Please model this.
Amino acid sequence: MTLRKMKLFIPMLALVAACAGAPHGDTGRYADLDGSDWPALTSPMPLDPAMEARIGQIVAGMTLAQKVGQMTQPDVRNITPDQVREFYIGSVLNGGGAWPNMKKDASVAEWAALSAQFHDAALRTDMTVKIPLIWGTDAVHGHNNVRGATMFPHNIGLGAADDVEMMERIGRATAQQVRATGISWVFAPTVAVGQDRRWGRTYESYSSDPQLVARYGAAVVRGLQGELTGDGDVVATAKHYLGDGGTFQGVDQGENRATRAEMITTHGAGYYTALDAGVQTVMATYNSWNDVAAGENHGKLHGDRYVLTDVLKDRLDFTGFVVSDWNGIEQVQGCDKTRCAQAINAGIDMIMVPEDWRAFITNTIADVEAGRIPMARIDDAVTRILRVKMRAGLFDRAVADSRFNGQASAIDVSALAREAVRKSVVLLKNENAVLPLRADARVLVVGASADSMSNQTGGWSLTWQGTENTNADFATGQTLLAALKEQLGDADVTYSADAAGVDVAGYDAVIAVLGETPYAEYNGDVRFPAPVQHSLLHPTDLRVLRAVADKGVPVVTVLYSGRPAYANDLINLSDAFVAAFLPGTEAGGLADVMIGTHHDFTGRLSFVWPGSACSTGEHAGDVVQFARGYGLSYGDRRPVGVLPLPATPARCD
Ligand code: GLC
Model:
């Protein structure tokens, strides 16, 4: 091993040792914070003097244009490799729906080839010391942008598995998928603590329980980053800092009105453990923070020095870098997509400027030259970016120098995903032990979701919103209908998407598969004062269920949803009811627990399940139908009985 590698290797040992000391899921040190102050953390990776000296020399030799270029992150749709060289760009990303040459079915080899073009270009600048590029991607439930890649259940389902060890394995598998495409940075884990199910990103949160989020966030960081320099390691991102899951009325990118104590104990929980696990990047959040109780309005947090620098970089001793969200700087008062001295001065180190990156570079150089941004802040940002790149080994090995690079087989991690599906679905009702079905059962399957890869994978699946896809776009994976046919035999499975004119006589059971249609971010918000009731939002599902219910044949309902859905009307029409959340590509895992006795239901709700259409979480007045931690296994004979059907008002005031 060369001296230089040895120099880099030493910090790795520190990281591995630090993480090794934290047994799986150890969050004890932060579980009982009283909210009086932020915990004082010490970075698990002490600054390496040799590395810091090397970084200092590089920064000292950089022009302002080269420094600002290093802080700029365009989307690959809006920049060429040669422009990366020309403008000294430090990073690129592929936002949801961006594929090589805009081919949705681009192969792993095509992804890896485009990556090589960008990475090679970055090393062809006229700089004295060439700085390698880092490419970021949203692999939030597997490498979800890539056709053929296994997609895991979304976080809301994984939270129901409550399996920290599996989460670390999912992180490792995801990192392997991502390295196959020549990418080395993942914008995950999301450590939001979802508080209001009207939020369109509820499904990106593991739980409303901060301690589960804390356990999971650390595990996923360990899985993704490994030792940071290995073939299957990527840089991870804790996001969205801070308080994205707690906005008023669940409005995405809205106002979080938490007290400082609530920010510390609830919304900060996932960061302390992720930082202890050595996470190297943090993504700033769109939301604002208005501590109404204290009369302190921090405004949009992309521009707030207190949370980005005083808390994160000083008190929590974060030595990696902060990346903005997509055009996040434009939401800061007085800023736009192309300019925001306030955000950079507050502590944003890398700016995600997907389209307007040229203007941003020009304006930011002007801001520095005019003294609106101190050069010391620019140097600190560039130092942090170079530090992460060195810790990740990018200065020593090309990203393509990995056994996974270009390997199509590396994106198939279906066995693990199927295990995750089995563990992430929750049995809410099972009257008269309708489930499990016998292996020789004859079933009628109804509901369009039974044969919809889109409804089972949700948002962030091939496209940003998860829409505009057909089953054929998912080169691998299995719908529940296909899985039932595989396990029961084609002859014993009859399918009717709309249940029109079906006769249930002669079947052992009916399986009704209902579901939301895909959405991402604010497109998934249910805006105040609208009630949140599945059958109101998706009336076809209620019609389908009514067509087969109460006809003398047991009905097993499976619901795909990105949020705990008020569904007492649907549950009352069902003999068994499975909350499947968004299971991803491997619905075979659902069939595994529904048929035979090889696998039992072990999933337990990680959010409360509402008992009325206006109950949005665990707020005063909310009705809880099933508590967090609820879920049946086959041995449970507790009847659920007929659930109350409180009137659903037109407005939830
Ligand atoms: C989005 C999301 C963020 C994602 C980023 C890049 O707006 O808020 O989670 O990582 O843009 O796609």
Q: What stands out?
A: The first helix runs from residue 3 to 20.
